Amino acid sequence: MSSTLWDAAKFFMVSGSKKHGLAEMSIIRAVLAFALAAGFGSYALADERPVRQHMVSLEPHDGAFVVPAVLNDLMTVKFIVDSGSADVSIPEDLASTLIKSGTMTNADLLGSKTYMLADGSLVPSKIYRMASLRIGGMVMNNVTVRVAASKSSLLLGQSFLSRLQSWSMDNARKVMIIN
What we know:
Elements: H1 3-19, H2 22-37, H3 41-44, E1 54-57, E2 59-61, E3 64-71, E4 75-81, E5 88-91, H4 92-101, E6 109-116, E7 122-135, E8 138-148, E9 155-156, H5 158-161, E10 167-170, E11 175-178
Parallel strand pairs: 4-9, 5-8
Antiparallel strand pairs: 1-11, 2-3, 3-4, 3-7, 6-7, 7-8, 10-11
């Protein structure tokens, strides 16, 4: 129950018994009970908007979870969800396929950047703007992607994850919840 609705209910139950008759109190309590049962609590007295959730199935893969994603409305690939990765990372052979298809061009090249990998090594990489990355029913446009060495893992990093209002993993249901 929202705190605003709870405060209103307490006010009517305490002060109402002194100012209103038994019939009026019964009506007030019935209206409050209906509002709670119908789920109006957070919307009736507060200016809140419902958050749309997207649930995407996860698949276990080598001790991590992968999530299917569609790149530039062209191909479906599976990314490892990696909140420790600064950017979305795609291997060079995949970037080459996107360039050959015309869905990623030299105009999308943003430059290069040096990344520190988990083992401490420094690796320079080209950075591109991915026109669209779709996970479930949610599409994000203009996502920064790092081009890694061929045969590298696809990583869903912070250049995607940090732009979400929130996200979480439900291990029991094997889903990623995106808000």
